[in-house]
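Page 47, continued from p. 46.
Same chain as before, 283 aa.
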Amino acid sequence: MTQHLITGVRTVAQLSELGVERGGVLLVHASLRAAGVGPEAMAEALREALGPDGTLVVPAFTMENSDTSRHYLDRVRGLDEAARAAVRAAMPPFDRARSPALAMGRLAETVRLTPGALRSDHPQTSFAAIGPAAGTLLAGHRPDCHLGEASPLARLYEADARILLLGTGYESCTAFHLAEYRLPSPPLRHYRCVVARAGRRQWWEYEDVELDDGDFAALGQDLERADVSGAVRGGRVASAPGRLLRLRTAVDFATVWLRRHRLPVSREGSPHPGPPPRATARA
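Result:
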């Protein structure tokens, strides 16, 4: 047996020991730098652990076609207006079949490019999936809803999916964003990106919830401290630390946590709607 096969078998066993179930739905956020396993081998191990009836989901976000994204703002910092205009003019429009999701890591790109994988329609925060539930999970991703009730995150919540954080922390836990949409009167902002319509490149601006992942690491730490039901499990996968958690538990906990930590408190001591601290946009 080759070293590749030995490593693959060991990784599948580690995933199963961590709690990845055959036939389940799994949303994966991964940084493979510390894992010591290539993206193709890790994707193969994940699919093997899930079995033929399981569905693997990854974020396939694109920020390269937006001039309201953190990626763009970092790229043009210090440039004059003419140079900024040149950057905007060179931005490719979103193409569901072709636009890469390089910022999401090698595993996400590998899954996106796997024959048979599907991708949702959002031009900024699409998801890719492979498995029998992929079509249902990715359908109806409204282009003016990044990560809310009209996104795959809500379908993953309904499907009682699990989240695997592999070599990364809670700051990467996209599911927490669904809780932001479930706050009373969440703050909104405008987003803008380049899309292709009727074969033409054009800018599209829309309003959606203001996304803020700045406190997700603290949120995740509190989730682990409060977990008495075993909804969060930790262990090694290849050479990387891994956490497996129920998406429903994460979102439900985050909804309560964000109400307590972001919403102003009335004189009676109860949270009431109001603007949270200004967010740093991801999309």
